[in-house]
Amino acid sequence: MFNTDRKIFICDTPKMIFQSFFESYSGVGQCDCGGACAPINFVEKNIAQLSSFNESYSPLSDLIKQPVNSKYCAILSPFAQTFAVLNTSAMACLKITNTLAKDGNLRKIQEQMLQLGLLVREDRQTEVCASFEARTTLASWLYVTDRCNLACTYCYLSQTNADMSLETGKAAITSTFRSAVAQNYQEVKFKYAGGEPLLRFPVIKELHCHAQQSAAQHGLALDGVVLSNGTLLTAKMVKEMQALGLRLMISLDNLPTPNPSQEGNYQRMYPDGRDASRDAIRGIELALECGLTPDISITVSGRNVQQLPELLDWVLARELPFSLNFYRDPLISPFERLRANGYDDLQLKEETFIAGMLAAYKVIEANLPQRSLLASLADMANFAAPHLRRCSVGHSYLVFDTEGRVSKCQMQMDRPVTDIHAEDPLAAVRADTCGIQNVTVDEKGGCQECQWRYWCAGGCPLEAYHTTGRYDVKSPNCNIYKALYPEVIRLEGLRLLKYAEEIEHG
Questions:
Q1: Conformation bin of residue 485: beta by default, left when phi > 0, alpha when psi is -120 to 50
Q2: 143 part of a folded domain
Q3: Cα atoms found within 13 Å of the Cα of residue 96, Cβ hemisphere only
Q4: How far is CA 140 from CA 180, 186, 303, 309, 406, in A?
Q5: 150 within some domain
Q6: Is the N or the C terminus of the chain less surrounded, counting Cβ atoms within 10 Å?
Q7: In this structure, are 207 and 249 located in the same domain?
Q8: Within 10 Å of residue 134's Cβ, how many Cβ atoms?
Q9: Domain CATH code at residue 283
Q10: Could you say which residues of the chain have pLDDT below 50?
């Protein structure tokens, strides 16, 4: 909304312009973290009795303020779930810590800020503690096959060439719904994964039909996404996905080189070493031609970060939703690390990695999309909604392997907790004390005083464990995150201003 004297733009309006922005906020689109960033409820939304002029108000604590340019500043509030762009005059209003104005534009702006939770009654500051743990979606990974036509360098799966039978898959879906009902979830999300799940696409179709029937039976919402490398996609598959309401996420880490003879050591490749990006791009373009927009998952490592600007330029030109996910080392033991000398260039070396990411952000700044950037740019740090845990592993998350065994995390499938026969597999996952422990950010050493803690949530606990032997410490990528997060907020502020000003000026 705009005010003639003190311009203040709030991301909530106008809804028509930012439809895709709202979709990403509700967990749809590029964010696929398993429900960890599900919306929370700000206590009473801070609806004050605006008729009272004698109460004292002050800015909500833990506001993040990031300059967008010389005229505007972005404001991010973890407790009120508000992202706003304010000009210098509106910022001055935010600093006022006395009673509400009795008339004029200042009063209107203060009322807007109260409604959005930027201002709060001073005696309520300690009450503003939203329940970050309230989750409505149960995420369930179904590994329909271990087989894959690629041999990606960072794959964490032990490929045994096993397939999930239709019977086992249906039992996994039924088991998921048993937990969803027992734990009072409102929605179930299935991620059909592999290996390469398109190798078993007929099974995926039957499984999702079974999931639809189960969701209708229990009165629960349903979401489904196929996580693919895109190389095997056909027009028939796309049409069938559309008919079933399935989303599609395709992994793409680089563009092909103009000269095939100059191909290098890529992350995603065929077993004979050939780059897979040409075929992945063919799959993406095929999906677009058929009317299905895939989400693009980009794994950024030390190996491909220098090529990231070129790849993002290609993605943005096609208005594709995307997410940037940082490389995670699938190796656990020191012995395995010693054997992996050829993969040393995948590691995130802070200085060069930050420089590469900032160069990629420059491309985004020159090609700001209509979709929100808050869930796309920084390795699962979804700034659309605060969270205590980086993902839902161990809490709202089930992983079924091809044999129907249930693990807490897809990167620890060798440590199953229970199986499809459990009455409530999620209860068993939550009770497990042996595998990955996904503690809250408030329990992690080095995180308690950080302003980004409710967005970063301390990073991946398994990654911290691989580095330190502990789950309750901050991410080894902490310095990288802190260098990038301010730029993410600035870019989202620029994006909102760009499209707001386009609408304002016709």
A1: alpha
A2: yes
A3: 18
A4: 10, 14, 31, 33, 10
A5: yes
A6: C
A7: yes
A8: 10
A9: 3.20.20.70
A10: 1-30, 34-35, 37-53, 128-130, 332-341
> What string of H, E and C letters represents the secondary structure of 266-318?
CCCECCCCCECHHHHHHHHHHHHHCCCCCEEEEEECCCCHHHHHHHHHHHHHC
In a domain, 58, yes or no: yes
Is 418 part of a structural domain of the chain?
Answer: no
Give the span between the Cα atoms of 98 and 397, in whole angstroms: 45
Beta strands in 348-482 (DSSP E): 397-400, 405-407, 418-419
The pLDDT, as a whole number, for residue 42 is 36
Q: Phi then psi for 332, rounded to 5 degrees?
A: -115, -55
My answer on whether 118 and 148 are in the same domain is no
Q: Which domain holds residue 288?
A: 137-366
Contact (CB, 8 A) for 296 and 316: no
Q: Do 142 and 80 have their domain in common?
A: no
Residue pair 257/234 in contact by the 8 Å Cβ criterion: no
Can you give the pLDDT at residue 57? Answer: 63
pLDDT value, residue 88 = 81
Given 335, 350, 366, which residue is the final one in a domain? 366
Asked if 91 contacts 73 with a C-beta cutoff of 8 angstroms, the reply is yes
**Residue 99, pLDDT score:** 55
> Residue 12 has what pLDDT?
38
Query: How many CA atoms, within 13 angstroms, populate the side-chain half-sphere of residue 428?
Result: 20
Reference 100, options 44, 57, 59; nearest CA is: 57
How big is the CA angle at 373 (ends 208 and 238), to the nearest 5 degrees? 30
Instruction: Clarify whether residues 153 and 111 are in a common domain.
Output: no
pLDDT tens per residue, range 139-167: 999 999 999 999 998 888 877 889 999 99
Quote the tokens at residue 136: 């409505």
- Count of structural domains, the chain: 2
pLDDT at 330: 72
How far apart, in whole angstroms, are the C-alpha atoms of residue 251 and residue 267? 11
